[in-house]
Amino acid sequence: MRLVNTHSVKPGVVIAKPIYNEQNLPLVQKGTVLTEKMIHRLINKNITYVYIEDERTEDVGSEDFIDPQARIQTINVVKETFMELKEEGFVSNSYILTNRRKQLLSVLDHILNEINSKKEAISLLSTILTTDDYTFEHSVNVAIYSLAIGTKFNLSKKELIELGMGALFHDIGKVFIDKNILQKTSALTEDEFNTMKTHTTLGYDYLRKQHSMSSLIAHCAYQHHERLNGTGYPRGLIRNEIHPYGKIIAIADVYDAVTSNRIYRKAMLPHEGLEILYGGAIGEFEKSYVEAFKKSVVAYPNGLTVELSDKRTGVVIRQNKQICDRPIIRIIKEHGETVHRPYEVDLSKNLQVMIQSCHAE
Asked: Which of 72, 190, 265, 344 is the most buried (most CB within 10 A)?
């Protein structure tokens, strides 16, 4: 199978992996032959990439980091919790959080078990799904990425649960912000952007009043938009003034934001998201955390077409877990000419060759 941009898909191609909706049902089944109408529907659902069948890469697979149904169920748990809290309003010591705590802890335990048991690095792109509201899927994704970083630094189980809970609730303040601002498809005005930024303080003020949430969890909501060089908000903190949890969640938050489907922008590919983090590693993000994150996620997903520095073209077919940006490539073209017998190149053993560009088309 190959990973392709939905805008480049032609009618007649066959879907190689199902696409799920928020009801835990396949929006498009594996084996479906796409029509022009179906392609437009996928684009309108903000699905940027799909996996299609390709005879040159029919043996290439892409393991789901978390079972698709389990991931959607997890997103729905977060959605239900957030919606109940929104309906309840800005109260102290919410009974909803107390009642939901056991369920949320189970969610975090499941994520940690998946991180510790998987042989390959994390690739959430392998499960393509569409949801009604980005905030809930984003909260789960940020928790997954944050816990992946935390495990690299050997945090205790108690610390990981605290970090994971902080990640799940880092955007809780958004439930108290006007939905018209949250879902606006055009650029926010200055006043609207200032209102949006208040989700950090709203989240902090809410969580710090909850007996079931620690002060550190509240500070995750408060600090996830702070930056090491003081350019973040709401307080313009610098370096050691920011708690490690805040630094970790900041990285996970930015990466998921740029690699997710949004109403107003196409999702970036994983390696592009990592480049943004590296661009900010000098002044904005903790470099050691960025390095740990790089070792945790798949930079070039299986099925992605890449061009190498020596002008060969191939498809990513397998990952090297310890060197996530040096996968194994099946060469299908040399200097623009199709090769009759495709062959493999392991970039972890051929360090003189680099991935120069990607073509999800």
From this structure: 72
Banded model confidence at residue 345, pLDDT cuts 50, 70, 90:
very high
What angle do the packed helices 244-259 and 134-152 form, to 10 degrees?
130
Kindly provide the b/e burial profile for residues 310-324, where b requires at least 16 CB atoms within 10 angstroms of the residue's own CB.
eebbbbbbebbeebb
Beta partners for residue 358, in sequence order: 306
Per-residue pLDDT at 173 exceeds 70: yes
User: Which residues have a Cβ under 8 Å from the Cβ of 226 and sit 6 or more positions away?
Assistant: 232, 233, 235, 236, 237, 241, 242, 246, 250
Whether 136 shows a pLDDT value over 90: the answer reads no
Mean pLDDT of 239-265: 88
How, if at all, do strands 328-334 and 312-318 pair?
antiparallel
* d(C-alpha 183, C-alpha 196), whole Å: 11
The predicted structure's pLDDT at residue 355: 93
Q: What pLDDT score does 137 carry?
A: 85
Higher pLDDT, 261 or 343: 343
User: Is the separation of the CB atoms in 60 and 16 below 8 Å?
Assistant: no
Whether omega before 234 lies within 30 degrees of 0, making that bond cis, reads: yes
